[in-house]
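lol so apparently i was supposed to do this last week
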Amino acid sequence: MSGDIAPPLALLAELTHRCPLRCPYCSNPLELERASAELDQATWQRVLSEAAALGTLQVHFSGGEPLVRRDLAALVRHAGAVGLYSNLITSGVLLDRARLAELVEAGLEHVQLSFQDSDAVSADRIAGLAEAHVKKLAAAALVREAGLPLTVNAVMHRQNLERLPEMIELALKLGAGRLEVAHVQYYGWALANRRALLPTEAQLERATSVVAEARVRLKGILTIDYVVPDYYARRPKACMGGWGRQFLNVSPAGKVLPCHAAESLPGFEFPSVHAASLTEIWYRSEAFNRFRGTAWMPEPCHSCERREIDWGGCRCQAFALTGDAARTDPACALAPDRALLDRLREADAAAPAGDFIYRQIGAAPAPAGRYFLAHSP
Ligand code: SF4
Ligand code: SF4
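anyway here it is w/ iron/sulfur cluster bound
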C-alpha cells in the first residue's frame, strides 16, 4: 500500500531515556531504556542519513534529556550536513553557555524548552528536582542571547492550570516566539498519575478563555498552540497526524515507532534500525501499515465523514482505556466506549489529587494496558 504514502515530515530522535528530572507525566514508556542499550553515535548518524534519504525534513532531538549525550553536537552537525532542520527538545537543566555555543556552532536551529510551572516551588516539585526551575530560566536566557528561536512548552494539568496566565507572562518575558500550552496526554507515566493530573471542567473552561484572550492580545508577538485535552474533547485529535502519515520515532535502543507512546501497544514487533532501513520500515513494515489509512477502522469510524481528518484518534489511548488498540478512540463522543472515559473523568475530578508516582528507571508502576483494568472505578 505504499503508492499513496508520503514521506514523513519529521523524525523524533529519542537519543536517551536518561533525564535528571522525574516528571510524573513523562511521555517515555514505563519500562525505560538504560544507557547501555542506547544506539551509538555512528548508528544515529546512519539513521539521520536514512531519514534524509527518505525525504524527512526535520529532526527533533529529544529524550529523556538529549543533553546527557556527549555526542549531541556531532549528531546536530550530521543532521545539518544531510539537510535536516534540527530542533532540540530539552528540559534545559544541563544547558550552559559552553554547551550551547557548541550546539550553535554545529548548526542547531531551534530550541524547545519545557517548563513545569511558573512558580519555582511548584515547578521543582513537579519536576522532582531541586533548583530545576532556576536552571531553566537561565537556559532560556542563553538560548535567546545566542539568537536562536525559542518555543516554551508548558505542560498543564490539575496542579498548575490555575497559573496559566503567569505561564503566558513567563513565556513572553523569556522572549519565546511560540508557547505550546500542552495538556497532559494520558498514557504511560501520565496514565499512572491520571488522578493527580486530570484537570476539573471548571479549570479547563477558565484555561480555554485565558488562551482565547491572550491570543488576541498577543497577536504577532507570541503564537499560542492549544488543544483541548482528550478527556474533555468531543472529537479526538488526529494523533501524530494519523498513524504512519507524518512522523516517525526512533527509540534510544533503535526501535522505529509511529509515535513515542506506541511501545505501550502489545502484539507489535516494532522494527529495529539494526534490521532494516527507515525507507523499508516506513513503507513496508507491518507495524507502520497496521493502522494506516482507513481500511482497518471499525464502525462508527469506517463510515464517518471525519475518518480522514482525525484518523480515528489515538491508538495508544484506545488501548489504554479499552484494552484494544483497534477500537475507536474513546475521546470521540461517537465512540462505543465513550461512557468509559466520561466515568473515569468524573471519578478522577471528584477525587483528591493524591501524590505523584515519579518517573524513574526501574520503578514502573504497572504495565500500561492493565493499569486501567486495575484502577477503573
Ligand atoms: S517529561 Fe520530564 S522526566 Fe520526561 S524527559 Fe521530559 S523533562 Fe525528563
Ligand atoms: S467516529 Fe471515528 S472518524 Fe468519526 S469523529 Fe469519531 S473517531 Fe473520528
